[in-house]
Structure formats: structure tokens, C-alpha cells
Design a protein that fits this description.
Elements: E1 6-11, E2 14-19, H1 22-35, H2 39-52, H3 76-85
Antiparallel strand pairs: 1-2
Helix pairs in contact: 1-2
């Protein structure tokens, strides 16, 4: 079955056309084929799955470590000099 990017849908008794992005249309088609269901059921399952996901993103926590070295970076020349003097790779 060839799926175009335009689909008709009935929303509260009103029929409308929905334009699906290529990746969404491919997901609908893949689910439809694997489950042996119609386009409407596949769209409904995918939408319900998206609605069930948490709305908040996970928080990022940065971990830092005390390295013991303190460098005043207000003078870039001094910093570059320290890097030139450093032993081994930086």
C-alpha cells in the first residue's frame, strides 16, 4: 500500500486532511505492516505513544573535579607561557 503524505482524518465529526512528514509516514507504514492494522489505528497508536512520554526533559548535572592548579586567565600571554612550559601533552 502506497501512503501519500496527505491523509484524511475525522476530528469530532469533521473530516480534515493531515500532512505527515516523510519520517512520520514511514513510521505509520512500518507499524501498519508489522501489526496488520489500518492507517488510522497506526496513527492513533503512534500519537498515544507520544502523548504518554514525560513532558519534562531530564536534568543535566555537571560533575567537576578539583585539579589543584590555579591559573589566572586574565592575561592570555601568561597562560600560553604556562602551556608551553608544561611537561607532556595537555
Amino acid at each position: 500500500m502506497l501512503i501519500s503524505t496527505h491523509h484524511d482524518a475525522t476530528v469530532v465529526g469533521v473530516r480534515t486532511t493531515v500532512t505527515l512528514a516523510k519520517d512520520v509516514a514511514a513510521a505509520v507504514e512500518g507499524l501498519r505492516r508489522s501489526e496488520g492494522i489500518g492507517v488510522s489505528e497506526a496513527v492513533n497508536r503512534l500519537v498515544r505513544g507520544g502523548l504518554a512520554k514525560p513532558a519534562t526533559a531530564s536534568e543535566y548535572e555537571h560533575t567537576s573535579y578539583e585539579l589543584g592548579q590555579r591559573v589566572d586567565v586574565t592575561n592570555i600571554g601568561d597562560v600560553l607561557g604556562l602551556l608551553d612550559e608544561a611537561d607532556g601533552p595537555c
